[in-house]
Specification:
Immunoglobulin-like; five-stranded mixed sheet; 22% strand; globular
Length: 428
């Protein structure tokens, strides 16, 4: 968020970051906080790792500011001293922001560049080893549920955070799979103590509900300590009830200075949490989940159906947090009636190959990417790492010559030329 004071001098400009919510939990190991104090801990960590001196503001735990600003994951606003919105973007655009500031404030003799800041990015905390306990592969589409930490029932901080997710069947029909992940909060510097009994979870479903398991026990790990999530996947039939389910979990937490047994409680509800963010890479959508040509290509009916499956709360609308990140960047273009949601007509108009997207000769999308363009889920003419086939993702950094996080026409052409070799056909 950017605030502009109308004295039309560069010194009258003030910049602010706003902590709204984590857009991508588990990125670099960070997870969603459960108290305002923990959000402030995240801000302190952001200052440490980014090295920026820009002032941070924190939204409250009800996310009222996030909702008021339109729930965009990376929005940008320019305000005058009276709070009037001069410019608003659903996705931050630094180059355009500079032009906006020149319009309202004027030019500066020596514009600041990112390189001139000499920012020293610090790594996140390095705790116990990871990659010790295999992760669970979740089949299909999952949405994060609203789970309420019972803060008044313990004096300990929530060293471990729960993320409860439901698949499409459970969200819509009350019958499907429930995924539970117990994630260590790195800002507390804790790890699992595997010399103690493994994590123990007790679920107490309401009458009429059927759970394949109500008592869960974590894996027995031979390594003394690790920081991997503890995960469970169970079958659930809610029947006619939608009552919240109490959950108690016990574990042993350690830091470099102490180890202790901890008991904590959550209340799992069946409401989708629109502020929970999206874990990346998103399982169930992206490269290898359909694609191809014909009807299943990005211009066909199957593309719309795959996108629409993200509407797991069944309100027949898509919000910014329900679509792939690449689509979020073009939200203002796609949301024709500016109501903050996409309906089926708006999505059809802006799907790759739809009336709102210019296509090149031979039915190819912008830039002539050929077969690779079939993986351009948002039709922006660029490929992100999530849009590539799995084998190519491992070589993404080598292919991304300008290190902008995307593959453009020249980079793909160069990649193809290398695969052909001197004067030969593409290598297999």
């Amino acid at each position: 968020m950017e605030t502009v004071h109308r004295d039309y001098s560069p010194k009258g400009v003030k910049f602010y970051y706003i902590y709204k919510a984590l857009a991508h939990p588990e990125l670099n190991g960070y997870i969603n906080p459960v108290t305002l104090e923990e959000r402030l801990m995240h801000i302190a960590e952001a200052k440490r790792t980014l090295g920026s001196e820009i002032t941070w503001l924190a939204d409250n735990m009800d996310n009222e500011l996030k909702h008021a600003l339109g729930n965009r994951p990376n929005s940008e606003f320019l305000l005058d001293p009276n709070g009037k919105v001069l410019k608003a973007r659903g996705w931050s655009d630094p180059a355009q922001l500079r032009r906006d500031l020149e319009e309202y404030v004027g030019t500066v003799e020596k514009p600041t560049t990112v390189a001139a800041l000499n920012m020293q990015f610090e790594p996140p905390p390095n705790l116990a080893p990871t990659g010790v306990v295999p992760r669970i592969a979740k089949p299909g589409f999952y949405r994060t549920l609203t789970s309420e930490p019972q803060l008044d029932k313990t004096e300990d901080p929530f060293y471990v955070k729960l993320r409860a997710e439901a698949d499409e069947g459970l969200t819509r029909d009350g019958k499907g799979k429930l995924y539970l992940a117990f994630l260590l909060d790195p800002l507390y510097g804790v790890h699992w103590n595997n010399l103690s009994p493994p994590v123990d979870v007790q679920l107490t479903p309401a009458e009429g509900m059927q759970f394949s398991e109500t008592k869960l026990t974590g894996p027995k790990v031979e390594q003394e300590a690790d920081s991997d999530p503890r995960e469970f996947l169970i079958d659930v039939d809610l029947g006619e009830s939608r009552a919240a389910v109490p959950m108690t979990f016990r574990y042993s937490a350690c830091t470099e200075k102490w180890c202790r047994p901890v008991t904590q409680e959550y209340l799992i509800t069946w409401d989708v949490n629109r502020d929970a963010g999206r874990v990346q890479p998103r399982r169930g959508f992206g490269p290898g989940q359909g694609g191809g040509g014909g009807r299943g290509g990005p211009g066909g009916r199957d593309f719309l159906e795959r996108i629409w499956e993200m509407d797991l709360d069944g309100d027949d609308k898509l919000s910014p947090d329900e679509v792939p990140e690449q689509m979020s960047r073009r939200w203002d273009q796609m949301d024709a009636n500016s109501d903050g949601f996409l309906d089926r007509e708006e999505l059809s108009s802006f799907r790759p190959g739809g009336p709102g997207q210019r296509r090149g000769p031979g039915g190819r999308g912008p830039g002539g990417f050929g077969n690779l363009m079939e993986r351009d889920a948002d039709g922006d003419g660029k490929l992100s790492v999530e849009e590539l086939p799995e084998p190519m993702r491992q070589r993404f950094e080598r292919m991304d010559g300008n290190a902008d996080g995307f593959l453009d026409q020249a980079e793909v052409d160069e990649m193809r030329q290398r695969s052909r070799g001197p004067g030969g056909p593409p290598r297999r």
